[in-house]
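As agreed, record copied across for absentees:
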Amino acid sequence: MRRLAVILAGVLFLSACGNSEPVETNYVSVPLSCADTKVLAAFPEKVPNPKYLPADWEPAEGTDLFEAYKVGGIACSYGIGEAEVGATVIWAPDDGSLFNELSKGWKDAGLQEIDLADIDEEKAFVLTEGIEGKGEYHVWKVNVLQGGYWIQVGATFFGSIDEAIPLVKAAYESLLSPEESAAQSVLGCYFTDAEFQLSILNITNHEHTSVAGNLILKPFQKDMAKGTFSGNYENGILRAIYTFQSEGIESQREIFLKRVKNGFIPGYGPVEVIDNKLERLQRPLQLKWQEKEIFNPGEECTTVLKALE
């Protein structure tokens, strides 16, 4: 139901029950791991044994997926891959401005604004096909603005709006609390003690899936590379663009780091050069993780970082 209806109901409840106060869940982040959400448990019985389906997203500019990742969102697919039955959920932080802007395109694409039963949404749009109760009817996509987040649930198996509600609820309840977000934060300084290279990774910002920081690479008896990076951290993988100076020349390189215990290990693979500047790993990705180059957290990391700067 719309938020106004919930607020009015809350006022009536408080009037009748004296000093009782409404309980609100304080979510501070989108999920950081697709495998740890509550979505799978909300699948209907007609989709037996659904699983998380990993995907290497390469969102095209102008798509909902691109806009979600641009603001620190995440997308996860679940279902039965071999049967092509499943659902994809997008989460993104949103004060309403992104949702309102995207809704213009949704309307042009045939999505209709709707009031969802049992959902405390501010706004919702749904894409359907057919007429409910008259022959074949499908609900392809639901977009919801709720509690500072935009959630999109797209599925191949919704036969009614009611069937979509459990997944929409589960998606919202998969958002992270302050405690969960703090436990999964990767903020901090990490360094390698590899034999031939000293590397310092200092993550200074981690908000939703967005990460940024500084990276210094100092190969033995070679010039140092020093710069900044920004990108995303999801499903235990940090993927970013590293902009750095080395030998007086500015360059860019795509980097991949995998979370291992409390640290990270880098991933390498074949590269291609874009516009004579960006070293980008070739697609499909052929990453090989280098366990011997582990970045470990440590108090001395900050001291070494300052000395190299």
